[in-house]
């Protein structure tokens, strides 16, 4: 009877060791999966930040283009109304705007 109990205990211990090894392997797989998810998440975050920066640049360029077009339209209206003095002032302002934008581009 004691041998039988001893044999049963050994079987249980062997099964427990086997179960523990399986659990350990599964935990390793889980950790690896978590690492991969973390890396993918960081890559997505990095790409989002890059897209935000590119979007801001595009918005600034769009605003700049709209401003230049507004100046050009005002210049055309002034010339149409034979207000050459106003047209000259607007042309000068447009040149200054373009010069400032070019300086900003050079410093980037």
Automatic annotation (TrEMBL):
Residues 16-31 have a biased composition (Basic and acidic residues). It comes from the Eukaryota. This is Uncharacterized protein. Residues 1-31 are annotated as: Disordered. Residues 1-15 have a biased composition (Basic residues). It comes from Gossypium mustelinum.
């Amino acid at each position: 009877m004691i041998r039988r109990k001893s044999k049963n205990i050994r079987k249980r211990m062997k099964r427990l060791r086997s179960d523990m090894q399986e659990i350990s392997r599964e935990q390793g797989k889980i950790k690896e999966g978590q690492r991969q998810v973390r890396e993918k998440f960081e890559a997505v975050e990095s790409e989002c930040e890059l897209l935000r920066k590119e979007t801001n640049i595009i918005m600034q360029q769009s605003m700049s283009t709209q401003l230049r077009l507004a100046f050009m339209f005002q210049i055309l209206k002034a010339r149409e109304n034979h207000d050459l003095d106003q047209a000259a002032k607007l042309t000068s302002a447009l040149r200054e705007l373009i010069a400032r934008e070019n300086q900003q581009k050079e410093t980037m």
